[in-house]
Amino acid sequence: MITTLAVSGYRSIRSLVVPLGRLTVVTGPNGSGKTSLYRSLRLLAETAQGRLIQTLAREGGLQSTLWAGPETIGRSMRSGVHPVQGTVRKGPVSLKLGFCDAAFGYAIDLGLPSPDNPFPLDPAIKVEAMWTGGTLRKGSLFAERRASLVRLRTTQTHEWREAAYGLSPFDSMVTHCADPDDGAELLAMRERMRDWRFYDALRTDPEAPARRRQVMTYTPVLSGDGADLAAALATIRAVGDRQALGGAIEHAFPGSTLQTSIDDLAGLRLGQQGLLRPLGVAELSDGTLRYLLLVAALLSPRPPELMVLNEPEGSLHPSLMPALARLVVQASGYGQVVLVTHSEALIQAIRSEGGATEIRLEKSFGETEVPDCDAPPWVWPKR
């Protein structure tokens, strides 16, 4: 379980270190940095997939994603004695991401590419580090990348060896140096990060992928766009927690019954009290469809180590928040869950179900902060 998330120099986050629990709720006003924190986790996952640079490019490149404020915000700026204004940069351009748990930690530092690079908007990986334990120390480091050189420390002799020289500034050591023999820890970390699951694009409009007919097949994991909803729900009924699925439907829509069929393209129907026939997925309201999508994600028969939900409450009536909260809390019993939301009704419902680690973001002088949070210890690797 991830215990600490650290971000520096990304969008509205100048420098932030936050604790994560088994279930963590991230909230705050619009523009406070919730999406930036969510994307930070997603960027770390993209590193393990080898897509970090492409993902940053879709966000506009490094210059568009960097912290836009001053390097430091002093007391005189906050008090209004001196205005916030541009100053000469003393440190290097840097976007840093990292996380750790009780066993391992990982951090990556990105900066500007060399002047002769033909793609000047692409960030270059300057430093990567992986270590044992919660805090980076010289003796706990077992994998290090500086510029194009990657070094690994062997488990048996604890001696350092060169694992790669001339590694592209766009390629991570997590994807290019994870060897089953000498880079077993890197490989294990890469596979863990690849197992993280994100849901932020569950559409419910008339053209949503979930409303289309589909071939029913074994689907233990709902896709990111929800296109295989019917198959995912049928898989839960077949090999997952059928009782929890029935309870989730009854809790949200009393008297309703979920019907799944594996031998036709309709796949999914919802019977409701007072109707002479069940409704097909194309007939469901936006809120009903979104709830079913969340049920399929949270009751997956193959729960991930980490699931991140970004504002799942969209299109849901407040009356559905207790049912959603129960699902989220239940899912956190099988894997870590991070929930980004601005719904106080959902937060209150989660509290009544047992509570969670709450991170309330605020904006001060353009910077995302967590005023009432005790930041865990964190050390960034030096360039």
Automatic annotation (TrEMBL):
<protein>
    <submittedName>
        <fullName>Putative ATPase</fullName>
    </submittedName>
</protein>
<dbReference type="InterPro" id="IPR014555">
    <property type="entry name" value="RecF-like"/>
</dbReference>
<dbReference type="Pfam" id="PF13304">
    <property type="entry name" value="AAA_21"/>
</dbReference>
<dbReference type="GO" id="GO:0006302">
    <property type="term" value="P:double-strand break repair"/>
</dbReference>
<dbReference type="InterPro" id="IPR003959">
    <property type="entry name" value="ATPase_AAA_core"/>
</dbReference>
<dbReference type="GO" id="GO:0005524">
    <property type="term" value="F:ATP binding"/>
</dbReference>
<dbReference type="InterPro" id="IPR027417">
    <property type="entry name" value="P-loop_NTPase"/>
</dbReference>
<dbReference type="GO" id="GO:0016887">
    <property type="term" value="F:ATP hydrolysis activity"/>
</dbReference>
<dbReference type="GO" id="GO:0000731">
    <property type="term" value="P:DNA synthesis involved in DNA repair"/>
</dbReference>
<feature type="domain" description="ATPase AAA-type core">
    <location>
        <begin position="23"/>
        <end position="86"/>
    </location>
</feature>
<feature type="domain" description="ATPase AAA-type core">
    <location>
        <begin position="240"/>
        <end position="347"/>
    </location>
</feature>
